[in-house]
Q: What sequence folds into this?
């Protein structure tokens, strides 16, 4: 994760003349069991990337980076229905702007549900937001920021960028979308990336065979390295229960295999991404289009 943000931190520094102090991070596509991985891997990667950049700028006074991370989930079984006739849309769903932050939410963590869109068909599914880190110290009201805030609460909420307002900033819709626009943009970018790697996501026999063979090679290499490391370790007796150290070693090996596969596939993806334009696009108009593509969210 940190590698992806190096360019963004650098661009921010070049434009503002200083490093950012706050990062509001929305993460989609994460199950409950993966929350710790987001904290330990992704957020730690952001911290590390920022620290490395700051260290490279010797003599610059930089404040510690504050990260507020919010997990966005739509794959849940919770549904809301209006209790009064004047609270429902013509299709029977709740009106956009529904907020639920008590009764059915966690008593230990900060989480809430927001239905910010008008479902066209079927039962509307509210987005569930779970705050897993809050260095910025944002209150629940600031994160939710409903349109119906009182003047006092609105003055507080307007000091930060909040979830509900972000749902109305998605560039392809004039109305609110179902979840925060940053997470929505990330989904679209991943869709675009899948197009470049379609050969491996929907492989033909040759591509599938190449990937499987490479995976076997990397697994064999990692297994041999582990065997060499454990050369002086006596064999496990029958019925042996794995120790915490052995379980951690298996996780380390699995990550090593994944990293090796990434290093194998990454140059292929970059070559596809940086492929030279067709002759028909080698003209001033094509130059402008390529520049705009590189500078904007062309994958939208």
A:
């Amino acid at each position: 994760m940190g590698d992806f943000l190096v360019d963004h931190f650098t661009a921010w520094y070049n434009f503002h003349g200083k490093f950012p102090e706050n990062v509001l991070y929305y993460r989609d596509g994460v199950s409950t069991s993966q929350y710790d991985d987001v904290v330990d891997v992704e957020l730690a990667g952001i911290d590390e990337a920022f620290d490395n950049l700051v260290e490279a700028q010797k003599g610059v006074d930089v404040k510690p980076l504050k990260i507020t991370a919010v997990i966005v989930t739509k794959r849940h079984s919770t549904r809301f229905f209006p209790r009064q006739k004047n609270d429902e849309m013509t299709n029977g769903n709740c009106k956009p702007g529904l907020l639920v932050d008590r009764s059915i939410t966690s008593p230990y963590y900060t989480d809430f549900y927001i239905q910010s869109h008008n479902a066209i068909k079927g039962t509307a599914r509210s987005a569930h937001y779970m705050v897993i880190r809050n260095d910025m110290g944002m209150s629940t009201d600031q994160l939710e920021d409903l349109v119906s805030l009182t003047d006092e609460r609105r003055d507080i909420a307007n000091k930060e960028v909040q979830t509900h307002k972000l749902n109305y900033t998605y560039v392809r819709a004039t109305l609110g979308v179902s979840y925060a626009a940053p997470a929505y943009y990330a989904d679209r970018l991943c869709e675009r990336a899948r197009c470049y790697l379609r050969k491996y996501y929907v492989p033909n026999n040759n591509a599938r065979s190449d990937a499987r063979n490479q995976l076997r090679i990397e697994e064999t290499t990692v297994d041999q390295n582990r065997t060499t490391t454990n050369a002086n370790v006596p064999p496990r007796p029958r019925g042996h229960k794995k120790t915490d150290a052995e379980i951690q070693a298996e996780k380390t090996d699995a990550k090593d295999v994944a990293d090796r596969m990434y290093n194998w596939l990454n140059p292929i993806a970059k070559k596809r991404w940086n492929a030279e334009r067709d002759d028909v696009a080698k003209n001033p108009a094509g130059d402008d289009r390529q520049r705009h593509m590189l500078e904007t969210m062309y994958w939208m």
About this structure: Residues 197-228+246-295 form one domain.
